[in-house]
Sequence to fold (196 residues):
Amino acid sequence: MATLYLASGSPRRRELLAQIGIPHTPLIATIDETALPGEPALAYVERLAREKALAGLASLAEPGAACVLGADTAVVLDGLILGKPLDREDCLAMLKRLSGREHEVLTAVAVADSQRCLTRVVSSRVRFRPIPPAEREAYWASGEPADKAGSYAIQGLGAVFVSDLQGSYSAVVGLPLLETAQLLADFGIPCWQHLR
Fold:
């Protein structure tokens, strides 16, 4: 069975892979995450996931028997990608825009080896209840939203804002487990079965 590398520094993605029994080694794949002019959000997340996987593969001394998994998540509202907040004001503005509304969360996963790179993109819909200004301020003060796409973490304190979720919870966290397991199986890497 091929060695799997996770091209991500995200502890959430490591935890999700561990949840389905996938042994892996984390590595950092640095890429330019700037959106291309006119690039649709779906194409953007798929491209970044693919580039992370391929950059991770290229960084290995001996990539022959290895697979690299890359992933990217984007929060999309009114056709615009809401990235990680630049500062307090940016975070508060994002939370105000998301308050009482539904938004889309797109998560792409890519797996690459020396022969091929396959990708999947998952779309989920998340609705927030209205978030009063004092709660937005308190949430920023918690420190949680500072490095999160869309300025919130559904697996953390941000869960209290979510009134409805349609789609994959794990994809909103950062890695769609069903699609990830299916992709890894295509590369001969089974999930939890190795625990038996």
